[in-house]
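thread: overnight batch results

M.L. [08:02]
morning all. the overnight job finished for the chain we discussed friday. pasting input first so we're all looking at the same thing
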Amino acid sequence: MAKSMVNRSSALAGHYQTGHFGIATQTGVTLTEVPDLGLHQIACWPETLAAVGQQAAVMAGCAAAPKPGQAVTGSQGSLLRIEPLKWWLFGAEATAIAAEQGNTLNISHARTHLRITGTQATTLLNRHLPLDLRAAAFPVGTVASTAYHHVGVTLWHSEQGYELFLPRGFAVSLWEGLLASAEQFGVEVV
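M.L. [08:03]
and the structure it wrote out:
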């Protein structure tokens, strides 16, 4: 029997319009909703941290699991250490973990994934997130759980730019605020 896939609809449907907004003569920020998010949370107990970390690394195709606040990319996907006892597996399927060691949970439908790039991306995010995003403090490969207008979000500085994961229920209001703020730099929504 074939598995049926649930069609995922964007939390931003009806609010996401592509085009150029704000200052017409420049594009300082590019905003992209990344569709079809594949995101699994992997959690462990303090005494199973090393074993589950190694299992998570294998799922991502990495040599080792990252330290807290760090992310690594392997042959299968990326592994983000969002909390001392939790990782997010991005872009790969998680395999089951024995209950006495930890657990995996598919959270793909619970988040909206935005990619923020451009010469003014850091400045834009610094106006909303209580993080030091200077290159020395938040280099590529850094991940942080933080707040955006009192809503818990996760920010990852990937090779492609800033990856912002928003809770689905708050995605529209946070998107509207981000887009309005980005207009001062000239923003391209793709």
